[in-house]
Amino acid sequence: MKRWTAWQNWVAVAAGLYTVLAMTWTTAVGSSNAYMLTGGVVLIVIGVINLAAPGMPVAEWVQLVVAALVVASPWMGSFATDMPAVAWHTWIPGVVALIASIMAIQPAMKVYHEHHPIGSH
């Protein structure tokens, strides 16, 4: 896998960007902006790391965990019931990033094993 070519990580970056930008057209509820900003920025950063340095399964797992936290953030930040419209702007990109992250793990493991064969240490 070449650098900057994993579509799954581009999807995660786009999902993070959407989460951050969604703050501009949604009404903040409690700590929703903090959760959306943090989750979106971290998705963007880990996605760019995975794009720049493919073949790091650990980083793909981190991206998966971050995506899961973005999905969970409306409940963690208590804005799932107060303002479901804001929550949907977090759940949808979070689920998209979660699915893309799941799909990115196997290719990253393959690249890792190609460059680090068993018994080479």
UniProtKB/TrEMBL annotation:
Q: A Pfam family name for this chain?
A: SPW
Instruction: Please give the name of this protein.
Output: SPW repeat-containing integral membrane domain-containing protein
Span of domain SPW repeat-containing integral membrane? 7-101
Membrane spanning segments where? 7-28, 34-54, 61-80, 86-105
Which keywords does this chain's UniProt record carry? Membrane, Transmembrane, Transmembrane helix
- Origin organism of this chain? Paeniglutamicibacter psychrophenolicus
Q: What is the superkingdom listed in this entry's lineage? A: Bacteria
